[in-house]
């Protein structure tokens, strides 16, 4: 009885000390993270409900949203940027992921020895470059003056966006490659050994054993690609500025957002409308991400080893 | 599955089949190398084109863009103009301050938080941990308008401090998630022994720090890269000539000196070199950080 009481007392005292330490250690990180990351995202939504053009903040409810979607110019620009962003995402998904898978499969084919590290590093180098360099390199290479390509790929409305998307794929293909590479390396050797003893060749081992085991990774890669491309801005801005032409054919949500709150030639800066655009983009990202984690992720996870 | 183990296990099979398997094995290895060489060339050649042409004269760049610089076309005049016409030294200094400052701050704050999140079993620890991890997926940029307002009211607009604060906030979630996996692997006996020896909690943490060193290296390498290469926040939070980072400086240089190709290519080469060198040296840590932090 007495022992029990003393135990509880000690435990509460210990856990109280734990609370104190826990707070002391996490609060510094928490403050920076909340003030400069989490809170601004929430505040963006709050700001979008106000009008500050007159100098005083007036609550206007959803008026900014109504304006964004009913004003002929802003709504046309928004739907154009959204459509372009979907295309930007689709090209990434359809080209980057299969190429990343091929590279990861080659790197883990078991036919390389020490050269694996060299190939892996070389293939990843474009990912370490800044988009300013990537944009300039490719603009120079596809420049008709240099004669490799005759057609002005960036100057034509039909080819400009696919061209920029492929430049971005060239840069970031290392990311799905590394994820899939790590997943392939994590497959236990005895499973592969068993397959080999059964007489399975490299081709059937890959498609029948390795591929199903790494399949859950594709869900994660797809959702990360979605978040990154819908948050995209840098490459388009580096190549075509904040009103990306020709005729807004390469405008995506990130450049639209920047142009709205920062202004550009022919467009005044509007902070409230900028916060509104940001909130809409946030919603677009949030709904799909939540749906993925709520519906798909667990089901995919259950197939993991 | 090397050729030798194949050969050993196949001694029981017919010799003709063995010879055939060996031949197809060798062909397969050649195909794998061939494909990887082609892809590696696609990845590297464009960068080499930039670097090589940055050492040439303007006419040589346009007449023979894919030729190596020779005695007639070799020139470093472009680099000289980069330093006289641009603000390259300042840009480098700013990028260094921002990248190192944010990385160090991220490491310190993330280490403290990750240690606490794995060490103290308090009731709301999972909640706090989840709140941090959520940030890996959050598009921080979309909070830019409120961030601008905060920086204006704190008088931090157009300063490097503003960049350091935002980048630290942006990097903390992945850093904490990564470090937690390393701290979990530290045996509790080590920490108990330290406490019995009279070490306080902070001291206990520093005693186990060497055991999570690979984690710290992984965090440092994944944190640095996106910060050095970012264009968005320097453009908005520190755009003036004296506060520009290299990435923004090169972007503006490209806009201003459109016809001076040797200088442009020199600026691009200088802008990319530090991070590419750093990545090549620390690629193992970087890849570990990337696949363990996000892939899980």
UniProtKB/TrEMBL annotation, chain A:
PANTHER family to which the protein is assigned, alphabetical: ABC TRANSPORTER PERMEASE PROTEIN, INNER MEMBRANE ABC TRANSPORTER PERMEASE PROTEIN YCJO
Residue span, ABC transmembrane type-1 domain: 82-292
Bilayer topology term: Multi-pass membrane protein
Membrane-crossing segments per the record: 21-42, 88-110, 122-149, 169-188, 209-229, 273-295
Cell location: Cell membrane
InterPro entries noted in UniProt: ABC_transporter_permease, MetI-like, MetI-like_sf
UniProt KW keywords: Cell membrane, Membrane, Transmembrane, Transmembrane helix, Transport
Predominant subcellular localization, coarse grouping: membrane
Family: Belongs to the binding-protein-dependent transport system permease family.
Species annotation: Acrocarpospora phusangensis
GO cellular component: plasma membrane
An individual GO BP term: transmembrane transport
Protein name from the UniProt record: ABC transporter permease
Coiled coil feature spans: none
Automatic annotation (TrEMBL), chain B:
Major site of localization recorded for this protein: membrane
Region (Disordered): 1-20
Keywords from the UniProt entry: Cell membrane, Membrane, Transmembrane, Transmembrane helix, Transport
GO CC annotation, single: plasma membrane
Matches recorded under Gene3D superfamilies: MetI-like
Compartment list: Cell membrane
Compositionally biased spans, kind Low complexity: 1-18
Residue ranges of the TM segments: 27-52, 96-117, 124-148, 160-183, 204-228, 263-282
Bilayer topology term: Multi-pass membrane protein
Keyword hit for Cell membrane: yes
Origin: domain of life: Bacteria
ABC transmembrane type-1 domain segment(s): 92-282
GO biological process: transmembrane transport
InterPro entries xrefs: MetI-like (IPR000515), MetI-like_sf (IPR035906)
PANTHER family: ABC TRANSPORTER PERMEASE PROTEIN MG189-RELATED, ABC TRANSPORTER PERMEASE PROTEIN MG189-RELATED-RELATED
Protein name: Sugar ABC transporter permease
Species this chain originates from: Acrocarpospora phusangensis
């Amino acid at each position: 009885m007495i022992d029990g009481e003393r135990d509880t007392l000690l435990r509460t005292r210990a856990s109280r000390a734990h609370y104190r330490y826990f707070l002391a250690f996490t609060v510094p990180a928490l403050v920076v993270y909340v003030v400069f990351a989490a809170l601004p995202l929430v505040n963006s939504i709050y700001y979008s409900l106000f009008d500050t053009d007159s100098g005083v903040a007036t609550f206007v409810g959803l008026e900014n949203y109504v304006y964004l979607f009913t004003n002929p110019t802003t709504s046309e620009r928004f739907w154009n940027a959204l459509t372009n962003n979907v295309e930007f995402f689709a090209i990434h998904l359809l080209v980057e992921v299969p190429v990343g898978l091929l590279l990861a499969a080659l790197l883990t084919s078991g036919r390389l020895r020490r050269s694996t590290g060299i190939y892996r590093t070389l293939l990843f180098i474009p990912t370490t470059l800044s988009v300013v360099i990537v944009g300039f390199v490719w603009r120079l290479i596809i420049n008709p003056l240099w004669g490799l390509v005759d057609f002005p790929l960036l100057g034509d409305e039909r080819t400009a966006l696919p061209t920029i998307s492929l430049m971005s794929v060239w840069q970031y293909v290392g990311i799905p490659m590394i994820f899939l590479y790590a997943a392939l390396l994590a497959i236990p050797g005895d499973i592969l050994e068993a397959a080999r003893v059964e007489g399975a060749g490299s081709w059937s081992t890959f498609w029948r054993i390795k591929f199903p085991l790494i399949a859950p990774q594709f869900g994660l890669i797809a959702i990360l690609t979605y978040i990154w491309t819908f948050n995209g801005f840098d490459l388009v801005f580096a190549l075509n500025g904040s009103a990306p032409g020709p005729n807004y054919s390469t405008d995506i949500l990130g450049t639209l957002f920047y142009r709205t709150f920062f202004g550009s030639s022919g467009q005044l800066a509007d902070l409230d409308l900028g916060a509104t655009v940001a909130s809409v983009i946030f919603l677009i990202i949030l709904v799909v991400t939540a749906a993925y984690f709520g519906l798909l992720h667990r089901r995919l996870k259950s197939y993991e080893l | 599955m090397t050729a030798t183990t194949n050969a050993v296990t196949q001694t029981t099979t017919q010799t003709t089949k063995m010879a055939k398997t060996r031949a197809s094995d060798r062909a397969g290895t050649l195909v794998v190398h061939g494909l990887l060489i082609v892809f590696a060339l696609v990845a590297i050649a464009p960068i080499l084109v930039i670097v090589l042409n940055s050492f040439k004269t303007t006419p040589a760049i346009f007449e023979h863009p894919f030729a190596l610089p020779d005695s007639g076309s070799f020139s470093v005049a472009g680099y000289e103009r980069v330093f006289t016409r641009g603000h390259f030294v300042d840009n480098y200094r700013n990028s260094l301050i921002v990248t190192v400052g944010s990385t160090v701050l991220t490491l310190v704050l993330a280490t403290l938080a990750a240690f606490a999140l794995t060490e103290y079993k308090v009731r709301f620890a999972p909640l706090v941990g989840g709140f941090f991890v959520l940030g890996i997926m959050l598009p921080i940029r979309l909070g830019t308008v409120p961030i601008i307002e905060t920086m204006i009211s704190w008088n931090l607009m157009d300063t490097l401090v503003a960049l350091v604060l935002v980048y630290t906030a942006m990097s903390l979630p992945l850093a904490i998630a990564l470090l937690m996996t390393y701290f979990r692997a530290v045996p509790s006996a080590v920490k108990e022994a330290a406490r019995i020896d009279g070490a306080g909690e902070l001291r206990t943490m520093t005693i186990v720090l060497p055991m999570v060193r690979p984690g710290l290296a992984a965090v440092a390498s994944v944190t640095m890269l996106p910060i050095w290469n970012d264009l968005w926040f320097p453009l908005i939070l520190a755009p003036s000539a004296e506060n520009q980072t290299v990435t923004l400086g090169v972007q503006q240089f490209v806009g201003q000196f459109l016809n001076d190709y040797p200088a442009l290519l020199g600026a691009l080469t200088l802008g990319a070199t530090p991070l590419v060198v750093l990545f090549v040296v620390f690629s193992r840590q970087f890849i570990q950080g990337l696949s363990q932090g996000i892939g899980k």
